[in-house]
Design brief:
Enzyme class: transferase
Number of domains: 2
CATH class of the largest domain: Alpha Beta
Order of helices and strands: EHHEEEEEHEHHHEHHEEHEEEEEHEEEE
EC number: 2.3.1.109
GO molecular function: arginine N-succinyltransferase activity
Number of strands: 19
Structural class: alpha+beta
Mean pLDDT: 86
Number of helices: 10
Shape: elongated
CATH architecture of the largest domain: 3-Layer(aba) Sandwich
Largest sheet: 17 strands, mixed
CATH topology of the largest domain: Aminopeptidase
InterPro entries: Acyl_CoA_acyltransferase (IPR016181), Arg_succinylTrfase_AstA/AruG (IPR007041), Arginine_N-succinylTrfase (IPR017650)
Organism: Marinobacter zhejiangensis
CATH superfamily of the largest domain: Gcn5-related N-acetyltransferase (GNAT)
Amino acid sequence: MIIRPIAHRDLPALQQIAVESGPGFTSLIDDHDFLVNKIQHSIDSFARDVATPGQESYLFVLEDEATGDFMGTTGIEASVGLSSPLYHYHLSRVVHHSRELNLFSSVEVLNMCNHYTGCTEICTLYLRPKFRRAYAGKLLSKVRFLFMALHPQRFADTVIAEMRGVSNDADESPFWDWLREHFVNLDFATVTQLSGAGNKGFIAELMPKYPLYTNLLSHDARAVIGEVHQHTKPALAMLEKEGFRHKGYVDLFDGGPTVEAERDQILSVASSVSCRIQAIAHDTAVLNRGPVSGRGDVLAIANTRTTGFRATVTDQAVYLPEHNVLQVPAELAKTLELDEGASARFIRLAAANTASQPVSHDQQGLALPPQKEFRYAL
């Protein structure tokens, strides 16, 4: 499987993902013109010479090389909230105290805000259910950090991720159900589609402008504030391992948490390794796994390009730290469009010791141990 920038030929598959992912997936909506414009904007962003982050949007595709199947997507918004407001609720606590009556109460409130304006957002991560396999979801998530490590000038110092909140199989959100009853008589699918398409005027016009005391909300609405969709839990856990933290900001529509981290302190950014490539014939002895440190580790590897960006996962690469050289099979170097001596960057996804686990293989015969994967996260 290979990660590459999206192209116009991917439109039918992208539209299918917009249908599969459902209304809560606001970064992709089932609208032909919207998706065409999103693809073109991504193509333009990859091609742009960038010194500081602006309104660039980078959308990547996970492709099965053997079949050409479109397995999933993942993306980065370089700087959010510049052309269209990025609204959140901030969950905080206020204290009411009467000294005369000796009464004291502490209550939670939700305040609407635009706290994350100008931040970079990782988004649009969706792995199609029929393509769930070892390391597919992890590659979709971590490739964004490889790209940030390669091109830090394209991204803001703070990186956020809006996690999908709780909704049921009928695409109904308990949090939105309460807001709908009292303020905005639109169903959840409609408001998420409007917001995803950038039509956010109704938020300023109809949503409550004053603090919402959470004890006035229904029990079901309160219970999901800051909680994630069941399919998003593995993605949230992965981001938490990268150093992302929830600081009280939640989505306006489903109450899902937004998590944040400093770009250069994200684990995969900080621990990624810049190296030179040495292409080795597949049957060369140095590529045989053995007790040497680093051999057999599962690595995510990327070239250093923008428009020609390519990344994949393999356990057949060997890093020689004393020479800062990554030895890879010649076929893999060709897939990544890496010439002999070219620069690359990699991160380790898993250690080499997999003997006790069942082993699956990809289309190139590379052994990949299974692990729990996820479908989507915003």
